[in-house]
Design goal:
This protein has about 650 residues and is of the alpha/beta class. About 40% of the residues lie in helices and about 10% in strands. It is globular, with a radius of gyration of 29 Å.
Amino acid sequence: MSILSDIELRKLNSLNNQGGFWYITKQNLVFRDLCFMSKILDDWNDRPEENYESFFNNHKILPEYGELGASTAHRATKNCEYLGLIRPSERYSAQNLTPFYFALKDLCNGDFNKLSSYPNIIDKQLERIFIDSSLNSLYTSQIQICPFMFLFKILLLIGDITNSYKITIQEFKLFVATAQTWKDYFAVVESILRYRSDADYRNASDANLSKVSDVRYNILAQNHSQLEVTSAEIAIKEGSEKNIRRKVAEYELNDALQSAEDIFSADLVLSPLTQTENSSYAHLLTALRTKPFVLLAGISGTGKSRIVRELAKACWKNEEDEFGKNCPRNFCMVQVKPNWHDSSELMGYVSRIGEKPVFVAGDFLKFVARAWQEPEKPYFLCLDEMNLAPVEQYFAEYLSVIESRKLNADGTITTDPILKKEAEEWYHTLICSLTGKEELRVQFLNNGIAIPQNLFVIGTVNMDETTFSFSRKVLDRAMTIEMNEVDLHGGLDGGALSEFGYIGDVLKCAAVEGKDVYEDNKELCDKVIEYLEKINAELESTPFKIAYRTRNEFLVYAVSRGEENLANSLDEMTSMKILSRIEGDADKIGNLLDRLETVIKQSLTPGNEELTLFDESTGAAGQAEKSISLEKLKEMKTRMAGGYVSFWS
């Protein structure tokens, strides 16, 4: 072990004091502070009557600019370029502020103290930094590298070899921060290991420490929530190793070439997986990826149907023709009528009035055909007041076909036909009226009309004396989410961004059954199954015992969220798929609720009354929050005092 490390040493010996390592200026490197500096530049807006330095100094101590402090120099604004907040330029100008900055500003409503609620954004923006020496005259070496992803790679390799996922600051400055391309990681790892074991090599390398003393990417790394950075070392935080490993694997598998331009884009802030992982919509998005049939339950007026509309609107980019429309073509609202007792209103029916039979297509069937014409665009059907009529009767075909979903080898998901092909003239006429695309016509004529992979059905549910309750047949096939919390201050700030941002490319289902995810995620799946076995032990001899369908959905949901969020997944799914099925009088339920509460507390909240939910971005234990399932159990137990209990409010 010497050839590569000898080359590294020769590279160190030939270094100039600058231009041969990852460079960043000697100024403030706190992400939050740099955002406020960008805001100062934004509000200065190139006014001719006052130069930027004067405006900066007059505003930097104000609360609305983060109280940056009297010692902060306006020159620190230069570091905003490295984080993609400002485009590189020789002069300060508000014209150089980037789409990333403006999207971040809208998200926080101008208060960048709120960034603490979005650690994902900070982490992922740091991970998008790309050093391209051809764009910076300060570099004397040819460097093209993503510094944070490279650092992750080194920490993982060193940890796998030594069982300690850390390096010293000297090792970082000498070997990591002087790397020029991704392929240098072999040489860097060999050099670090030799540096630790070979005293002569260490002394020869240390002779170059003065040349790299201005390396400050280790200071910038203090912003990353999954790194522990001190004056002596850089380490992966405990509990974050698997998440870091996933990031590196995804980076290495990504075919797209990274560019220094990527960091200026707003897409990171607009992504729902960045914006909503820590919000109340995380489980809704995951539920949709798990099963394209969701029930939104809650009191009247909480915005259930509006959420479905917003989901559809969030699937369009600003350059697309449907962007901003209140009723885009991928959205269909159907008001359920109390007199529906078959599927003729939704699917349609054959009318034999006239000379020839004619199929009169319903809104649902027409919408299914429209969704087939744009397979890459998510389509949303909202069944408003879904339980005003018996779902099992008017939606019978869908409830049957949705269970035939199958993941194919090419990654597509197909179903049995919801309308089977017929050797009748009316069927041919119907197909010609539903689509003008010849390829689709042939498909429908040969195979019937199936449910497209991009169709999501969301039913809104109110429970009162005018509505029907759900059978377990419906509940077993749907994901149930409650929306009873009301924030009367919400929706009044007029922010430019919706709750979701852009979600057009993240809702595609990647699995259907447990077998689709088990082989690659055995450890995680076994934990889920172990939990379900404990739950099922308490459900034994009751009609609420779960079987393979629920197990599959638990597994797909948990894998979709990742192992770092396992506690969240189990908690949310317990409410969605287990508690939602429980109803009956005191004789039927007995002490079942108490027993389930004990299992949940022992499995998810050992020693606590609250659930210590995992942080969405770090994979480590976060602050204690109220468990969804425990809160629901508390509500159901209170209702039990009236002699009858149900999940539904």
